[in-house]
TrEMBL record:
<dbReference type="GO" id="GO:0005524">
    <property type="term" value="F:ATP binding"/>
</dbReference>
<dbReference type="Pfam" id="PF03099">
    <property type="entry name" value="BPL_LplA_LipB"/>
</dbReference>
<dbReference type="GO" id="GO:0004077">
    <property type="term" value="F:biotin--[biotin carboxyl-carrier protein] ligase activity"/>
</dbReference>
<keyword id="KW-0547">Nucleotide-binding</keyword>
<dbReference type="InterPro" id="IPR045864">
    <property type="entry name" value="aa-tRNA-synth_II/BPL/LPL"/>
</dbReference>
<keyword id="KW-0436">Ligase</keyword>
<protein>
    <recommendedName>
        <fullName>biotin--[biotin carboxyl-carrier protein] ligase</fullName>
        <ecNumber>6.3.4.15</ecNumber>
    </recommendedName>
</protein>
<dbReference type="InterPro" id="IPR004143">
    <property type="entry name" value="BPL_LPL_catalytic"/>
</dbReference>
<dbReference type="GO" id="GO:0005737">
    <property type="term" value="C:cytoplasm"/>
</dbReference>
<keyword id="KW-0067">ATP-binding</keyword>
<keyword id="KW-0092">Biotin</keyword>
<feature type="domain" description="BPL/LPL catalytic">
    <location>
        <begin position="18"/>
        <end position="206"/>
    </location>
</feature>
<dbReference type="Pfam" id="PF02237">
    <property type="entry name" value="BPL_C"/>
</dbReference>
<dbReference type="InterPro" id="IPR008988">
    <property type="entry name" value="Transcriptional_repressor_C"/>
</dbReference>
<dbReference type="InterPro" id="IPR003142">
    <property type="entry name" value="BPL_C"/>
</dbReference>
<dbReference type="InterPro" id="IPR004408">
    <property type="entry name" value="Biotin_CoA_COase_ligase"/>
</dbReference>
Amino acid sequence: MVAFPLPDNAVEAGYRVIGFDSVGSTNIEAMKAAMAGNAGKIWYAALQQTEGRGRRGRAWESPYGNLAASLMIVPDAPSNSLAGLGFVAGVALNTALTRLMPAAAIRSGLDGADGVSDGGRARIALKWPNDVLADGAKLAGILLEAQKRPDGRTAIVIGIGVNVVAAPQGLPYPATSLADLGAPLDAPSVFEALAESWVECYQMWNNGSGTNRIIHRWRDNAAGIGAEVAVQRGDGVLRGIFETIDDAGHLIVRDDEGHRIAITAGDVHFGTTATLR
């Protein structure tokens, strides 16, 4: 077992953590806890996971020393508000990185290449729906999964992977790490900052009643509004202009004919990739 420290506000709020040196998947461990009737508010964190998964079942590689963390909670919230937890996790992770690297130009947005902070380009940005980019390369990912418990309640598992010491190699997209950015951090310290900011953001979400506040915070700092975007969906590629994130967390795209289309899921590309036809 590895010690992953919990901040005071997390301890006071009743959170717990189980740490691993290496594990198959922190999400699987959290799912097992949900099925066993665990009360929730429990983190599973590891320096390495060997069977990690990203969105749409894709493999999420995790070189040793990076952070793999999954939180299992059982919210007392309407089912239609649970998807907002992805934005809670994104804002919490952005907040944690801001505190860990205050000298970096950090701004929540859709594309690090488009973000502007203090007159210069933002280095770190939130990319809809669940990725974190740094200088346009993937730094972290977030995955939400729901699990029906034996008592009929719905548990939510929020998996977060952060490239702390190294980025995976051989990926079809650029990736980076905190070490590449010149941040001499380790996984336990990143986890502690994340666990602290999670408590604050989850309280703001307030079982769904604060969803608008969370999305407003995300959107107010978003970069890329007005830029071209391409969204790969099951029925093809939608191209247009990114207009906003609506109050439900949908990506709003205005197509070439002027129609405003709400996107609930898809692979999003900005910049040069979005303009290729």
